Amino acid sequence: MTKHTFLATLVLLAACKNNIDPDKVAASITKGLADKGITAKVSCPSGRAAKAGDTFQCTGTDDANTALAIAVTQKDDKGTVEWKLDGQILDTSVVVADAKGKLPGAEITCARKAVVVKTSDSYECAIKNAAQKKLVIKIDNGNVGWEAN
Question: Which residue segment(s) compose the domain that 144 sits in?
Fold first, then answer.
């Protein structure tokens, strides 16, 4: 094999390198978030070789312009990935249903059906037709509770 042939072979191998499609990964994450009630725009880095065990970060913003961080792990060298959102998705309707049971006649409205929260966070919803004016949903070490003020 001549030196020229060897270099051509290396270039060919480099061109055939199997990379992760960042748009497909972002679309998968976007759909997964939408399935849980979160509308988001997600982007992932390009140029990632498909390699089992490799990890990378995708970023996004939800419909309230809140920044999202998503950790992605490659499961194999064929492009199979799994992702994990930094935070948890809170379905506000579950908390509202609980609060309405304890605040008869109260009309509770939240700006969003689902929000991304951290391990210690809070989210507020409006209350009408009750002495209290706001429902504060509190997350403490992943445990969800609420109080009406």
Answer: 89-148
